[in-house]
Amino acid sequence: MFIIKVIGFGIIASTLAFTAFLLTGISRLERERISSNDEDRKKICKKCADSVGMVNVIGNILMILIKAYMGIVGRSKGLVADAIHSGADLLATIVMIVGLNISDKKTDKVYPYGYGKAEYIVSIFIYLSLLFIAAYIIYEGFICIIKGHVVEICWAAFWGAFFSIFINELMFRQSVCAGNKINSPSMVAKAWESRSDVYASIAVLIGIFGAKMGFHFMDPLAAIVVGIIIIKMCIEEMWAASLNLMDKAPEESIMEDVNNALTKVENIIGINKIFAREIGQYMEFEIDVNVSSDTSVENGESIKKNIKDIVSNVLSRKTIIKVRLYAV
Amino acid sequence: MNKMIWFAPISVVLFLIFLAVMYGWIDEIEPVKVQEKEIVEAKPANNVQTFPAGIGNNNIQLINNPTFPAGIGNSQIQLINQNQTQTQVETATYLGLNLSENLYVQSAIPSSPAEKAGIKSGDLIFSFDHKNITTREQISTILQTKKPGDTVKVVVSRDKTKKSFQVTLEQSFHNIKQIAAIQSNRPNWMGADIQDIDSVMKAQFNLPDKQGVIISYVSPNSPAEKSGLSSGDVIRRFSGTRIRDVKQLQKLIIDSPAGNQIQLTIFRGGEYQTIPVVLGQQPQIADKPPLLGPADLAIEGSWIGMDITELSPETATGMGLPSGTQGILVSDVESPPATMVGFQTNDIIVAINGISTPDMKQFAKATENQSNAVVDIIRGNRHFFITVPTPGFTQQGTKINTPMDNKMKQVASNSSIKKSVVAIFTEGANVNSQVGGDMANSLIIADLDKNSYTVVGASPDNSITQIMDKYNIDAVICGNISKQRTAALLASNISIYSGVTGTVLQAIALFEANLLVSMKY
Question: Which numeric CATH code is attached to B93-171?
Fold first, then answer.
């Protein structure tokens, strides 16, 4: 019991410290920004934006820990389910990092096309296990409601939910502000995406309040809602991974961009076809273009190089481009 | 690529699985609830009229009808008193001296506070707690004002010189039998806890009959363990002598010389086996920490009328149990049937019907759909079986004719507030059996002066009145009693305490604490 208390104290203390750090850090940067000139302002915003990644990782881990601890100690099923939900989000980030690592592995004789697709298999397995956990959450929640178990929830659960929402909101504000200032729409989009996690936490908060008011079924109900959110997330991720395994073509907009860029290339008569697929962190293109029959090999090679440069400039990610020339 | 990267997703997945397990666990464990004590209300008149008014109503059935018309022989009072004494008896202080009438120490009970302080037999007590004393009663009166843990100065005369001792009082043992066991087991030791067999045990262990005694626990490194005896074995014969009950076997063990090899015929798994056992000496009994219950207990559940909680390691060490002991702690014994079958506060339930109960979940499983049960408990340093009968039956199942046993057995009692000879009607033939009605088979006669008791079987040529005269009995304790017998007893100036429930030991404890209400004209 002593160890549990020590762990709990550690989690609570680090959560409070993190919150205080975020609040003071942001307000300090804000004061500096206002009192400095334009040149320095950009630097300060850059510094702030650089810290976003680290702050999000630490914040998410702390959120999971405080929800798990407060959920178990405060006996709120909803909050524990929410902790699992946040854990699933963290898992997505980790799978991405692991995928990056796998993709970096050099191609060999056994796998001449590289290890890019391994990421999808890993993610399918992980989300499959999460799917079971989510199903278990929903099942247990229903059992709890049907059997009418009365779980006396402690206010600790409320504070857990409250702090996780508070930290989430702080991190959102920081990401959006930094993303707008350094002109990074992807950072803003990510911030909005992670803000949607708050809805689950709000449901849990309502559940805790309901249970405190005497409607004991509301906490498991919140857990079921969270379970459904997790299942939805798992199915989406697994669907995306299997589509990529099936070499689905990328979105229309990307293909159009590439097509438009190719029309600007000199010495091309026409575009025969453009195929593209995802291989882990890379996007592979197969581009067939028509050139006049009197093109020399030297010219042909320069055309190929041209096309590769242009296409890789259009996309802001790693690409593998294979170009074939057809004489007309 | 370093392989360490795999630890990240795997550890997160494991953590999530842990969370999922916790998620399921949250509502499994019963929440801590404030237990509401049942208030016994007087029932309306229709219930009252079934009882003929008057003394000694033998229609009284305590188990089924805990409410009674007000009046004489009111068992409701006794029940309430019993609840009160539960705490009183527990907090009773324990000195551990057998004193003669003229204040000579006859014996100091081994490992008792008095013995630890250095008081020996033959000492003459002068003063106790800075007061000169002349009678035993004075010591009892002083003891009543003390708490366990208090230190008392005792001045004695030994070999014509005065000596003083500081005695730190301990909490009283619950059980006369335990002290008796400690005393009697010293010279010769087998290392197995034994009990009489009742019908619930017979059913649970699949025995053909109730003959012999059953082993409830085998101490580690004891002769019994070395020779291969195990819990659940039934001892039928001791070197050819047929075993009838626990007392007989205990006597046989004590009487046979140490180091002697004896042959035990046991019944195990439907077969008879003969096992040689070399009796040994019991090793020095380790100093027992006082049996103090933990200060604040979270009541985690209730079962057959008692509050139970999971035994935490701290509590286990606090109670002086071996490390690693797991079980369910009885935190309060409130109502029948738990009070009836002999559970006590601080008992630790380790198994039910052979299913071990290390935690609440296992306990819930083990008690699910159980109509009768043999419960393996640890009390003090001993293992017991306590049987929980199917509702509506006694522990004995049917009434059995216990053989006559007139041997007086010396036991120690830790308090002697009131002096008298008491007769208790009982269902069984030992002090742990239930108090019965006056039609019961056996009669236990306890001499509270001499701290001894005897079991007398009732038979036609040994009528109750004769026994009463023979043993010079002052009081009778029983579950119920007929009018005729009441009249006869009252005529010979014997006080009657009717409507008492629980075991004989509990009844004696109540009687000594002056908490029973006697019948009057």
Answer: 2.30.42.10
B235: phi then psi, degrees, rounded to nearest 5:
-85, 120
Tell me the CATH number of domain B187-278, given options 3.20.20.70, 2.130.10.10, 2.40.50.140, 2.30.42.10. Answer: 2.30.42.10
In chain B, which residues have their Cβ closer than 8 Å to the Cβ of A114? none
Q: Give yes or no on whether B93-171 and B187-278 have one common fold.
A: yes
Cβ of B9 within 8 Å of Cβ of A87? The answer is no
* Residue in B38, B37, B83, B32 with CA at minimum distance from that of residue B301: B32
Residue B24: which of A87, A140, A152 has the nearest Cβ?
Answer: A140
A:B CB pairs within 8 Å: 81
* CB contact set of A205 (below 8 Å; sequence gap of 6+): A158, A161, A162, A165
Angle between helices A38-73 and A77-104 (to 10 degrees): 130
- Euclidean distance between CA atoms B464 and B481, whole angstroms: 12
Ramachandran angles phi, psi of B264, nearest 5°? -105, 130
B31: chain A residues, CB-CB within 8 Å: 75, 150-152
CB-CB neighbors (< 8 A) of B9 in chain A: 91, 94-95, 98, 122, 126
Task: Give the model's confidence band at B1: pLDDT under 50 very low, under 70 low, under 90 confident, else very high.
Answer: low
CB A224, CB A137: distance < 8 Å? yes
Correct CATH for B301-388 of 2.60.40.10, 2.30.42.10, 3.40.50.10490, 1.10.600.10: 2.30.42.10
Interval B38-46 mean pLDDT: 42
Nearest-CA distance B391 → chain A (Å): 27
Does residue A227 register a pLDDT over 90?
Answer: yes
Q: How far apart are the C-alpha atoms of B326 and B44, rounded to whole Å?
A: 46
**What is residue B319's DSSP assignment?**
T
Q: Are B348 and B326 in contact (CB under 8 A)?
A: no
ipTM value of the model? 0.79
d(CA B315, nearest CA chain A) in Å: 12
**Helices assigned H by DSSP within B199-327:** 199-204, 223-226, 246-255, 313-318
Contact state of A81 with B22 under an 8 Å Cβ cutoff: no
Using the Cα atoms of residue B105, residue B110, residue B113 and residue B118 in order, give the sign of their dihedral: positive
Cα–Cα distance measured from residue B116 to residue B112, given in angstroms and rounded to the nearest whole number: 6
Give me the DSSP letters along B69-135. -SSTT-HHHHHHHHHHHHHHHHT-EE--EEE-TTSBEEEEPTTSHHHHHT--TT-EEEEETTEE--S
Alpha-carbon distances of B87 from A6, B81, B102, B331, B337, rounded to whole Å: 36, 10, 32, 12, 18
Residue type, B456: V
Query: B10, B11, B19, B34: best mutation site toward chain A, by most A Cβ within 10 Å?
Result: B19
Calculate how close chain B gets to A127, using CA atoms only, in Å.
10
What are the residue boundaries of the structural domains of chain B, listed by start? 42-92+414-521, 93-171, 187-278, 301-388
- Cβ-based contacts of A150 with chain B (< 8 Å): 31
Q: What tokens appear for A241 in the block?
A: 């991974």
Give the range among B253-257, B280-284, B462-466 with minimum mean pLDDT.
B280-284
Structural domains present in chain A: 2-245 (1.20.1510), 252-327 (3.30.70.1350)
Share of chain B above pLDDT 90, in %: 0
β-pairing, B234-238 with B261-268?
Answer: antiparallel
Contact B217, B192 (CB under 8 A): yes
Of B203, B208, B228, residue with least CA distance to B218: B228
Res A223: pLDDT: 92
Nearest to A77 among B9, B17, B27 (CB): B27
Contact B16 A84 (CB under 8 A): yes
Thinking of the domain B42-92+414-521, which architecture would CATH place it in?
2-Layer Sandwich (3.30)
